[in-house]
Amino acid sequence: MLAAAWFVSAKTGVKCEILPKTGALHDSFPGAFGRDSDRKCMNIPQWPEALESVHKLAKVDNKREATASDSMPSSTYILRHTEQARTIPAAGEPPRTIRLILGALAMKPPLTRMLLQATAMAIGLTLAAATAASPAKIFYLTPDLNFSFWHNIAQGVAAEAKKSGFELQVLSSHDDGAIQLQNARQAIAAGATGIVLSPTDSSTAPAVLALAEQANVPVVIADVGTNSGTYVSFISSDNHTGAYQTGQALLSALRQKGWNGGDIASITLSLARNNGRLRSAGFAQALTEAGAQLSDSREMKSYTADESTQFTRDLLSKHTQLRGLFVQADIPTLGAVQAIRTANRGQSLALAAFDGTPEFIDLIRRGDVLVSGMQQPYLMGQRAGEALILHLAKKPVAPAINIPILIVTHQNIDELLPILRETVFANEIR
Predict the structure, then answer these.
(1) N or C: which end of the chain has fewer CB within 10 A?
(2) pLDDT tens per residue across span 74-88
(3) What's the pTM?
């Protein structure tokens, strides 16, 4: 009995698999396709005919077994698309012919073997030609697309990829290093020409870089940074200077309000991230130069508004004279705003932030957020995509590219808004 059959691209590692499942044997395959990922196999010319050929062979084997056992086995063959980490050919190596592989098969009848070989030959050149004609793929591995900052970086990478004729696929790691590594394997198996990586944190990046280097896939890092590893270029903001200037603006406002001597706290990024350490150090420098000190801090793990709401409540309860609070990310800042409003502390506390969501425009205009050091994620994505594409074209690329941080207050927000719309908010606000 035919137990399973699948086609594997030796170039990309994409495996299109026909598997048996309990149920009635169908005469045609189209109704068996269910998931979007299956379409990757279906889009190959003559794939339906190839499936039908294998399906007919399954019937032949089923009938042969039925004759021997006097019972007709019940099997339904469906198509499943999977990704496997396989060795990717070196740059310039011509694509090898798609191979028909039979796995876990009881393919004893000679006629069956001959027919399958003929099927493989019939579709081999077509599949290889389809693979060769596909646009080169760039993958963006992002910590979590639910966050506007990473979404906007993705938009910037997409703009550069489209401009140069590359296909972009974005894989979200849901802030999980293990998922990030699996995403890297998937990208490499799918034939990634290059990868733009925004690590979940700096300690998880080296494993991805090692995997990509082994497969000869170049990587550009966009934000966060890495503790070690080989990469083409690191696109970053000056997190230390941005946090330092944000801290200076916060402390200047406290002095103007006459709130000298009050407590100051911060809600930080994970200190496993290089950018988290840099923002904390920059803010600490501003405090030291002003003769102030940090009274308390909380370190984020999930970067959600709910998490920072609870952190802010804790800090307000513990420090009745809390005058300044620095939250090192945008969505968590929204949680802090809510907690401050609920506690009716908005008139006695100044809130500083980092980055920005569209809500920040009104929050800064109203004074709910005093200042925010805004990175330019769309621009960062553009520069990351550009660096990778230049490298693939064998052109020189700077090993580090620094993007300025914009210090935004209610005094300058309207002046900066045309820039913010594009480079911060990816042209998604009016």
Answers:
(1) C
(2) 222 233 333 332 222
(3) 0.68
